[in-house]
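Q: A small favour: would you put together sequence and structure tokens for a protein?
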Amino acid sequence: SFKGKKKTSYQNQIVQRVVKFSQSRNISQFKVAKLINRTHQTVSLIEKSDSPNIYSIKQILIICEACSIDASYVFMDNEDVFNTKTQWEILDLLMKRISEYENNKR
């Protein structure tokens, strides 16, 4: 049961980045819902910070593709990239961030 549960602050941060990217490309909640084959109500719930619902990784990839944005931007920011030395460290950090997002699912 989701009763009384919310997203973690990290999950909320990721969802809000997806929202920011889609809004910056003028992609509405209705369009997002159509892209990920969900209802507008479901997308609205996902985007509410006090809801436990989150986008799946596959849904994030679909939305990012529609926005023409590299999905790594959802999980990492410029500071992460500047503070890592090699592409392997960046890849490792990206995998850890995705895992943190997924493993906190309710």
Observations:
- The chain is about 65% helix and 0% strand.
- The radius of gyration is 14 Å.
- Residues 36 and 58 are 9 Å apart (CA to CA).
